């Protein structure tokens, strides 16, 4: 189940092992989670990771669906399965004890759906899959761009082979090093606390009993909004102007670095707009001329330290704002930091652009899906001629 991502067509990862039990599937099949909360969260994927003739296997908590010769296409079945009509019927049919409810496979035998011609099914699937492919392309591009930024960061600030004043890599060309607490560092660099690099702000949740505190105005970031996101470009909840005004000192500008420090410590994201966070997140608003991209990469590299500091001997991992502020980080001279920002800035700007485009494409896809599946919008049909 962990190999499926919410509302994402692509299988994210898999392992190879000898079959013992579980659901079997081949390329072209659709895997739909049948257990709570995975079904409600949208875990449904299209199988395209296998070699020709290869059979895969997975969790017994998958329902496997496929097209039927002469009746339906595999791609159409995937999009039909993700449509609100099917999802809502499946969710309402769940049975079992609280927290372990499941959909029975025979539920699908009783569902009535609108089934267009094969030609129109192909056309519908083509429109929706083109959108999904563009989203996936942007996602892969972002992963590559982020990996390049991290590789530059490692070479410059871990291996210390940033360009020296004449161009060659600093350490490999004999650049002078000095002793420090964690080991040798380039001359002119320093070990500082996070609080020396910027203001640390611990988020806060406005009273939820007052519904007027919430609206559509200002991002309210929680840990789920940060998962797998370099930039937070949308949030499940937003604050109203009133809710924001109650905690003006907690407001974050764009390019603040958010670090989850309670329950799931170690996630790192950048804000893309004016935002607030809840109390599970500590954020860094960098000082003037201090690169937020440098601090973002630094905190990504320190995610394991954040996790270990959050252990604290309690059942819930918790790194308080004071301890977080006192964390030590390596700070280079400003000329090297600025040069890093100039190199990485265009990469991260493209990541943000791609992320925003994906949000728009997802909204278009999600708007078209129920209309295409219900027949309110017709495509590729002889009825349109």
Characterization of the model:
It is a single chain. The protein has about 375 residues and is an alpha+beta fold. Among the domains are: about 90 residues, no CATH class; about 140 residues, DNA methylase specificity domains (Adenine-n6-DNA-methyltransferase TaqI, Chain A, domain 2, Alpha-Beta Complex). About 35% of the residues lie in helices and about 15% in strands. The protein has ten helices and 17 strands. The chain is globular, with a radius of gyration of 25 Å. About 30% of the residues are buried. The model has no long low-confidence stretch (mean pLDDT about 90).
Write the layout of secondary structure elements.
Elements: E1 23-25, E2 30-33, E3 44-46, E4 56-58, E5 62-65, H1 74-82, H2 84-92, H3 118-157, E6 177-178, E7 185-186, E8 190-193, H4 194-197, E9 198-202, E10 214-221, H5 223-226, E11 231-232, E12 237-239, H6 241-245, E13 257-260, E14 268-271, E15 275-277, E16 281-286, H7 292-301, H8 303-309, H9 321-325, E17 328-331, H10 334-374
Parallel strand pairs: 10-15, 11-14
Antiparallel strand pairs: 1-4, 2-3, 2-5, 6-7, 8-17, 9-16, 10-12, 13-14, 13-16
Helix pairs in contact: 3-10
